[in-house]
Write a structure and sequence with these properties.
four-stranded parallel β-sheet, Rossmann fold, 13 strands, 17% strand, Methyltransferase, Cobalt-precorrin-4 Transmethylase, Domain 2, single chain, alpha/beta
């Protein structure tokens, strides 16, 4: 029986980041499983290509798996270095499992990200495990400061992602409502093994829609921590020894505590309740309803079909939804207005559409009719479109 562990990271072209933040993980797994062959692969084809041009050979996950199959391995366990599930993880998993039964393979398994299950049926609650073993040990009261952890999916940390839910606006902006208090300071820390240029720009860039500038524009004092995660044993889900994990959690506690002098942690209402905090939901008015009322624009009438879609969804999904909808609310249009405008024009919904940025605020902007707006128009993050089909 030949057994192998294939560790798959997205990858990095930065040598120091790759060696410190990825190779160190592989080496830890290699030491923890001396009876297994441990190999590394990158899922980013662009990074693999650029490294190859520099004479550095790191295979894709498919290339690495095919090599293991050719070498006669019977048991292969693939462990991604993803923190949460999502499109990238699903694509990776499908690529791997497509090789089931090939060669002499008897067992082919894909490990889950650090936090994946939420206690569904017989599955563990990875988020609760994270809280029980790490967050609770911080002993931070709910009256302390705030930490915002950002990744490329309790009492005082909120986690957001850059291009999926929960967005920063979903988890950061409502903080001022907790206990009727508004925090003065938000610490922004990447929840990433490798902090590349793309993430650096999205988080800390000079553009108006970077995370730090959005938070600063909302009135917070923002303190940026320009570093990827410090590697501690706690981040390795394949370490099963309780004493080793406990040492890792305690070391992680020491590292994170240095950032939490004034912090307040939060991650989903259900998990906050588990820490003994009382949760009160205050009914409010949704943004698009406020916009419709503010502009006197009927959102939906009679038997019309209303669609509510995020502009961050794939273009083909937005196209399919607008093909059957009479009315549409399109949110988060600040990044890809060009594609949204093109799709609205295609479905005869642009002429009478309205778009508003920062509704009700002093610098509110209103656009009526979206077919003639220049494609490179700079939009605020808080921009929403209301549209109606003209041919129905």
């Amino acid at each position: 029986m030949k057994q192998a562990i294939l560790v798959v990271a997205f990858g990095s072209t930065v040598d120091s980041a790759r060696e410190h933040n990825i190779d160190s993980v592989v080496e830890h797994i290699r030491k923890s499983y001396p009876d297994y062959t441990v190999e590394l692969a990158f899922s980013s084809r662009i990074i693999v290509k650029r490294l190859r041009e520099r004479g550095i050979e790191i295979p894709t996950e498919q290339g690495a798996l095919e090599k293991l199959i050719q070498e006669g391995y019977t048991h292969v366990y693939v462990q991604p270095l993803h923190f949460t599930g999502g499109e990238e993880f699903d694509k990776l998993k499908n690529n791997i499992l497509a090789h089931e039964g090939e060669g002499q393979l008897e067992v082919l398994r894909v490990g889950r990200p650090l936090v994946y299950y939420m206690g569904q049926e017989e599955h563990p609650d990875d988020y609760q495990i994270l809280i029980d073993r790490f967050i609770k040990s911080l002993n931070i009261s709910k009256d302390d400061g705030l930490l915002l952890l950002i990744r490329n999916g309790l009492t005082n940390v909120r986690i957001a992602v850059l291009e999926n839910a929960p967005y920063v606006s979903d988890v950061a902006m409502p903080w001022e409502w907790l206990d009727g208090k508004r925090p003065k300071t938000i610490y922004v820390h990447p929840l990433l093994l490798v902090l590349g240029d793309h993430a650096q720009n999205d988080l800390f860039g000079d553009e108006e829609d970077s995370i730090v500038n959005e938070l600063a524009g909302a009135g917070y004092e923002v303190k940026s921590i320009h570093s990827a995660l410090e590697i501690v044993p706690v981040v390795f889900p394949m370490v099963l020894d309780d004493s080793t994990q406990e040492e890792g959690w305690q070391e992680a506690k020491r590292v994170i505590l240095s950032y939490l002098d004034e912090a307040h942690i939060c991650m989903y209402n259900r998990l906050i309740e588990n820490t003994g905090h009382e949760i009160e939901t205050i009914p409010g008015v949704t943004a698009f309803c406020a916009i419709g009322s503010h502009l006197g624009y009927p959102i939906v009438e009679k038997e019309e079909v209303l669609a509510i879609v995020p502009a961050t969804a794939p273009k083909e999904k937005i196209d399919a939804v607008l093909a059957v909808a009479d009315d549409a609310v399109i949110m988060k249009v600040y990044k890809n207005f060009d594609e949204v405008q093109e799709t609205l024009i295609k479905h005869n919904m642009a002429d009478d559409a309205v778009m508003i940025s920062r509704v009700g605020l002093p610098d509110e902007q209103v656009f009526v009719g979206l077919d003639n707006i220049q494609k490179d128009t700079k939009l605020n993050y808080l921009s929403t479109i209301l549209a109606k089909r003209k041919d129905r």
